[in-house]
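I am writing to request your help with a piece of structural work I have in hand. I set the record out below, with my sincere thanks for your time.
___
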Amino acid sequence: MKTTLLTAILAAATTAQLAVAEVHVELGADIQYFPQPAAIDYSTNNNTYLRLEYERESSDGSVKFMLDSKAQYNQRDDRRSRFDFAELAVGYFADQADITAGVLTEFWGVTEARHLVDIINQTNVAENIDEEEKLGQPMVKTRLHQEWGTVQLYWLPVFRERIYPGDDARLGPGDSIQYQNAIYESSREENHQDFALRYSHTLGEWDFGVAHFSGTSREPLLMVDVTKLPSISFIPYYELIEQTSIDMQMTSESLLLKLEAISRSSNAQDRYAAAVTGFEYTQVGIFNSAMDLGYIAEYLYDERDEQASTPFADDVFAGVRLVANDIAQTTLLLGAYVDRTNHSTAWRLEMDTRLRDGVTLTIEGQIFSNSQPNDLLYGFRDDDYWRVGVQYFF
């Protein structure tokens, strides 16, 4: 982030009459276990982190300072051992408009299987292959909210590169990615000025958002480095794109209908469309208990088909979500991605529960089955894993 922007944020935060403050500290540790041997031969990986959240606002609520930082150490992967900010920003809030400047994490999307429209923040693939972990993005965000809807304008002055696992880490691409030699289409490289505009509104049972992004793609194309042949290594290429998107959700009692769709164009790729759509139906009080069980089914489509940079170009996701509604606030998600052509399957389990006040337990599992050599998941065929973590909140 540019020094001038950071200086302005800190100056505004210290000069405003800040009164109400909230501080949250989270200390976490997890162990990841790989039951199968692989080319990178280790079976366990330990990870610890400390997260600090601080929020303070003025007595009238018009000025707010936000900080969300995380320091992490990983036993096996230096690219996961890092200190970073998910938020470091100051905002001014009025009745019908607000403006926020600094580092922020912004989420767009409604579907479960994949968030196609979520394009503001860069993805940290080293942290988790589910593409849910994001890097804080330097930005200036302006929002206008009226009865007819909400308009958000984003100026993104600094680009952040995608973080991949290290060459000696499991769940990597299998071949070296020369992230230090990344190539940009723009001559300004990471200083290209990106912009995004989004309109969102609610009409009856429908919530929807329409957006357009113009700038450097957060998803690089991986180009083979021909100078390294016969060894295979890749160089990330960050192209300039124009992407228009829509996300919609219909809520009707126990049924949710969901859609995320994009149309993207660039000089390197022809214009293409991609979408994720499906439903979630919740059965309340199963077996005459307090538990709710949700049934999820979604279809993932990418017009590029075999040329797509994602393994989910023609796949079905099916799963169940259990919400126990107990004192421990236990939730469980079990689902599978199935390729409709070669039947390659990726199973995923996520569970969260509270052990006692201020202490939670998380369990995550991923199993890859029937992977085919022409499938982008083939490199993960020996990387089934289980991860168990404990989080302490202060």
